[in-house]
Amino acid sequence: MEQQDQPNGAGAPNSDEAMEAVPSRRRMLALGAVGVSAALTIRPAFAQTAVSVMNCQIPVPDVSGAGKYIDGRGNLVAAGTKGAFPGSPRPFTGEEVKRAFRGQTLPGTTSSQSQAYLEYIRRLRAGQSGFTCFASITMQR
Questions:
Q1: What are the structural domain ranges in the chain?
Q2: CB atoms within 10 A of CB 113
Q3: Which is more confidently placed, 6 or 58?
Q4: How far is residue 4's CA from residue 31's CA, in Å, rounded to a whole number?
Q5: Distance in angstroms (rounded) separating the CA atoms of residues 42 and 118
Q6: Model pTM?
Q7: DSSP-derived 3-state class of residue 85
Q8: How far apart are CA 116 and CA 81, in angstroms?
Q9: Of 48, 130, 52, which is closest to residue 87 (Cα–Cα)?
């Protein structure tokens, strides 16, 4: 290392160990380059994750509830129950659900039907179809 790279200090030990404790400019630049490279590698992964979250799907209801209706509280009920809605003919994307949580209605639904579907989605638990998608769109970033 160059003399100017070393700290000035009275009584500083003049050994090889002391010289290795203070990194050189070259070493610091190398560490910075590694950090930038890691950041550039990680950012596209986050972008890809965000895109896949918006394209994930949430069936309403999931396969285990096929043929059942969804009441206003988001519970599965017998088909034909008064005030309940039949399941959606297609799954909703994460982007559609995210917009609906912000106040829009789910595509192809009435306001009441959309609210019932959103309540159903809020009640999803691990192991149910669509839970991972729901968890991904509601996670804080």
A1: 56-138
A2: 19
A3: 58
A4: 20
A5: 33
A6: 0.63
A7: strand
A8: 14
A9: 130
The DSSP line for 48-81 is HHHHHHHH-EE-SS-GGGTT-EE-TTS-EE-TT-
Query: Strand, coil or helix: what is 127?
Result: coil
How far is it, in rounded angstroms, from Cα 109 to Cα 120?
A: 14
Give kind and range of the element (H or E) at residue 92. Answer: strand 92-93
Does the pLDDT of residue 3 top 70, yes or no? Answer: no
In the structure encoding, which two tokens stand for residue 36, read together?
A: 């930038």
Which pair of structure tokens corresponds to residue 83? 């005030």
Q: Is 88 exposed, middle or buried (0-12, 13-18, 19+ CB in 10 A)?
A: buried
Rounded Cα distance between 98 and 35, Å, is 34
**Which secondary structure element, helix H or strand E, spans residue 93, and what is its range?**
strand 92-93
Q: Is 96 left (phi over 0), alpha (psi -120 to 50) or beta?
A: alpha
> How far, in Å, CA of 86 to CA of 70, rounded?
6
- At residue 96 the predicted structure's pLDDT band, cuts being 50, 70 and 90, is very high
Higher pLDDT, 36 or 133: 133
For the cut 80, the answer to whether the pLDDT of residue 77 exceeds it is: yes
